[in-house]
Amino acid sequence: MLLRRTVIAALSATALAGLAHAQAPAFPTRPVTMVVPFPAGGITDTIARALAQKMGDTLGQSVIVDNKPGGGGQIAATQVKQAAADGHTVFVGATEMFAINQNLFRKFSYDPLRDFTPISSLIASPLVLVVPANSPVNSVNDLVQQAKTRKGGMNFASQGIGSIGHLLGELFRGQTGGEYNHVAYKGSAPALQDVMAGQVDMMFDPVITTAPLIAGKKLKPLAIAAAKRSPQLPDVPTLAELGIKGVDAGVWFGAVAKAGTPEPVVAKLNDAFLKALKDPEILKRFSEQGMQPFPSSPAQFGSFMQSEVARWAPLIKASGASVD
Fold first, then answer.
1. Is 121 exposed, middle or buried (0-12, 13-18, 19+ CB in 10 A)?
2. For 259-280, what is each residue's pLDDT tens digit?
3. Distance from CA of residue 147 to its chain's centroid?
4. What's the pTM?
5. Hey, CA dihedral for 184, 186, 191, 192, is it positive or negative?
6. What stretches of the chain adopt beta strand conformation (E)?
7. Helix count (H) and strand count (E) of the chain?
8. Which of 58, 61, 218 is nearest to 131 (CA)?
């Protein structure tokens, strides 16, 4: 009797497994489109294109990068939101698109936590506090003293209103005191140009973009806004080492699919992303550019996004930053 029950149970399990396999959606059945909310040539685009090439080998289909810049990520995100929930269209964005902009824009067309299914976090890069190469400021202590004693205080550049550089500057202001005047730019490149020219006193910007300029003696690094030092700038202390706590944030990138995408499809996409992030060629390329692999499971990325939204929402409100 026991043997008979065991055989029946085994057959039932096999039948259920076969049924589950039969019900699992075929994926991918055509090329996968990776929608990026920035122009070609930018950091997010560079990451997406590097991963897409390797992912195609894993998925057995081409992975195409489609650049849809504008609207703080809304144009790209809406394209994915309106696509079929079958995993063939994914959204690859940065911190602002997933954790900041929905609380920054007065009207915003998507909710990153409600409208999308997390696939994986991808890449992270810490921010570094920089000043002009010829600045008389040689340390964070010098900077803080200048902000407290210099008439008019210090001006700090950012990539734009509500950007990670803006919010980190506000955190720095709150932790150190003194007078800091925010100067918003349209992107990192023009802001860095004015910092290098000495027209603005300081800026928080990712190591990805600043490391080459620091190496070229065009910028002077004062501190890393992260829990640990950057491998690209090992001699630059963290703000925490200097006694300034809580000012640690970096830019990060991740991938999501439309809400309702079947779990087996999300799992395949996650596997393809993670395999690409482990590729030695990719690791070497990203490391040289100051980018650190930041892989995760879908559940881990979902929890991380929730924590980031909760972290930045009150700061955005307190700063009064908003975009129409």
1. buried
2. 999 999 999 999 999 999 999 9
3. 30
4. 0.84
5. positive
6. 32-36, 63-67, 89-94, 116-132, 154-158, 180-184, 202-206, 219-225, 250-258, 292-293
7. 12, 10
8. 218
